[in-house]
Amino acid sequence: MAQVDTDRFLKDLNELRKIGEFRTGVHRPTFSPEDMESRAWLMDRMRECGLEPTIDGIGNVFGRHPGPGPHLLVGSHIESQNEAGWLDGALGVVSGVALARAGLPVDVVAFADEEGHYGSFIGSRSMTGLLDEAEIDTLTNRYHGKPLRQALKEAGLEGKPRLRLDPARYKGFFEMHIEQGTQLESQNLRAGVVTGIVAIWQYRIRIQGMQDHAGGTTMAERKDAGLTAVRMLSRIDREFPMVCGPRTVWTCGRIALDPGAPSIIPGEAEVLFQFRDIDVPTLERLEACLRSIVQEMNRTERTVSTLEVMSRSKPSPCDPAMQASLAESATKHANGQWQHMPSGAGHDAQYMARIMPAAMLFTPSINGISHHWAEDTKEEDLALNIRILADAAEAFLRGG
């Protein structure tokens, strides 16, 4: 039975936390000096536990186990959102190092830019062959506009080859992560065995009205795109509960009004809207409802609304055998204090699931906080979950 060193695991997490330290969290944007320092730190930890580390041309750090298989792949990411939490992503990578240090035949990976500073999951997509050079040429930083090519050059990664994973090498991929929600904590639970990662369906709603003077145009004459947007969102919030699933969520991430001045009636509005669920029929019902609402608004409003699909991802179910190993281990270490649950957030595991069996384990998040420097998890819960993961990984490797 593999014996994981929980004290060293916690020590590694807290050492990594010091790189880019911000209040009680971290600030390690992708390809920043702090991010690159953390990648160098990780490669040193990989060497210490017998892995052969390398960093590729998109910033992925990969530690290869030199011994015979079957092998597991374990990891996540170590860059952060701006001024964010110390565990998001880092937990999954350091847990891989802990499993390697315990003698398990695992490769460890820190995927680049899961947080999307330059693109969508560019590290895991690169390693699965879903990121081509043409797309890299188009990507820029969403905060300050720096081209990805320039960032790679400044980080010393220009000219390095990009690694591709060989699915035949692996029996599966494990990712441990904080929950980023309150479901576990609110029920006094200490672990979550993830059933799958939700799909995200994203839309742009454009509303065309008539720009006019706020004082000289009567209410009866107005074609106010801003008010149409507000009424449409109110209607969505009223009707979606009648067609949604138990864990469906929906979000309006942005309302942009043009020209956006206090004394001018908005002539145009743009709404960015998304919903998430793990069940495809539920997603289809939600889209049908959204289309019906837009159609009805065009009948009753003095504006014209159009709906544009921006993206429709697919749900990523976790592997049943890997879930079973995690469930058996969770029962052993935390009987009555764990549950099966979906992930409402996206993770690198959803791209690994395209090429190999994949599964995730959640730890509780204190107050559900994530993507903020106050993000935290109790050390006893971190230690418990690394033991759950280690036993599950070993059992899955032994199984058929």
TrEMBL record:
One Gene Ontology term of the molecular function aspect: hydrolase activity
Which InterPro entries did the record assign?
A: Amidase_Cbmase, Bact_exopeptidase_dim_dom, Peptidase_M20
Q: What single Pfam family name could you report for this chain, choosing any that match?
A: Peptidase_M20
Which Gene3D superfamilies does the protein's record reference? 3.30.70.360, Zn peptidases
Query: Required co-factor?
Result: Mn(2+)
Assigned keywords, A-Z: Hydrolase, Manganese, Metal-binding
As for family, the record states:
Belongs to the peptidase M20 family.
Assembly mode: Homodimer.
- Please state what the protein is called: Zn-dependent hydrolase
Species, as recorded: Roseococcus pinisoli
